[in-house]
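Lecture notes, unit on protein representations.

Consider one protein chain, 202 amino acids long.
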Amino acid sequence: MRAAGLCSDQGQTLPIYIWLTGILLFVAFAFFAFAQAASARNGAQSAADAAALAAAQDARDELIDGLELSIGKSDDWLDWLVGDKFTGAGARGAAEGLAADNDATVIGFGPDEVNGYPGFWAQIETTYTVGDSIIPGTESKHAKAEATAVIKPRCEADPSADPEKPVELTCEGDEPFEIDPDDFELSDLPDASVLFSVHLAD
């Protein structure tokens, strides 16, 4: 009787064990699928951030080039320090290049303005998919994300400054410096990051 009862208990326990094991495996695969999706989203956001920043940095380079060419040759050279005289002609190309480096494609792009500062927004789609999982369709699902980066001027001159005479510029967190349009050399300008900051919009 005891042997028969023991065999009966084992027979009842085995299906429960198999059932619980199946549930645990399903939960493990589900967590893995969510981890895959989260990883794809993070990768997409990193690519979008990089693309937007690349576009804004390209515009900053254009501002620096324009400033260098206008000092001593144009009486509106101080306007370049405001940060809105760029055309952004190379911005999309810069964004696409950085997106490609991060295994993504730019699917949306354009100029933007945040808190009065000019910039660019970029929307990307990853070239890779979330991958196979227990959730149907993930094997063909591409992650998407978008980001905006702005260019913020960091230096300013006295509003009454005469652009045809030496002008002292005061910059955020840095020592003031002077630009003499009649005796200007490229080395007189500080690093681009001193004149303009480029950062992701909050």
